[in-house]
Amino acid sequence: MPRTLAVSDSIVIQAPPAAIYEQVSNPALMGRWSPENLGATVRDGARDAYVGMQFDGHNRRGALRWTTRCTVTAAIPGQRFAFRVHAIGRRRPVLRGRIATWEYRFDSIDGGTRVTETWRDDRRAWPDALTNAFDRLATRGQTFAEYQRGNIRRTLRNLKEAVESASTPS
Question: In terms of CB atoms within 10 Å, which of 43, 45, 130, 156 comes out highest?
């Protein structure tokens, strides 16, 4: 069975695109929303995202923990933020290769912003049968596409809650 190479989902958040972009484009904050990511360390300490910026993402799934090396591929304030995951390892990202691309789009709509999160499987050189077997082992029975679909939904819900509660006057 051929694998699904990309999944995405969207949510409407009651905040302007620029405000949401500012949060999402800071990799250190991703751990606040993601069910798997614990945050990141920007390699040069930059505060504003730029194309070419590298960061190490710290992740966990159950008892498993790992670090990924990522490079920002799009940083258009209020519109689009994307990064490519290209190395992985337990404590340091030492195994290099195409892993995944993550993208966030911010579309202004009446009353807020439609945020779309997309995951793309960049492991194109892997045979489908091998990939599906590896994925089911790593996710306890799912393909990465199925698994990431759930992660995206949770991330977007958590992002919405965090952004909207922060903008609600006390």
Answer: 156
Digit-coded pLDDT (tens) for 132-144: 888 888 888 888 8
Query: For the packed helices 128-138 and 144-167, what is the interaxial angle rounded to 10 degrees?
Result: 50
For residue 23, the SS3 value is helix
SS3 156: helix
Cβ–Cβ under 8 Å, residues 69 and 42 = no
Read off the pTM. 0.92
Q: What band does 169 get if pLDDT is binned at 50, 70 and 90?
A: low
Helix axes 144-167, 17-24, angle to 10 degrees: 120
Lowest mean pLDDT among 12-21, 63-72, 88-97: 88-97
Q: How far apart are CA 39 and CA 141, in angstroms?
A: 26
- Cα 169 to Cα 16, 86, 166: the distances in Å are 16, 41, 8
Produce one character per residue of 52-65: b if its CB has 16 or more CB atoms within 10 Å, e if not: ebbbbbbbeeeeee
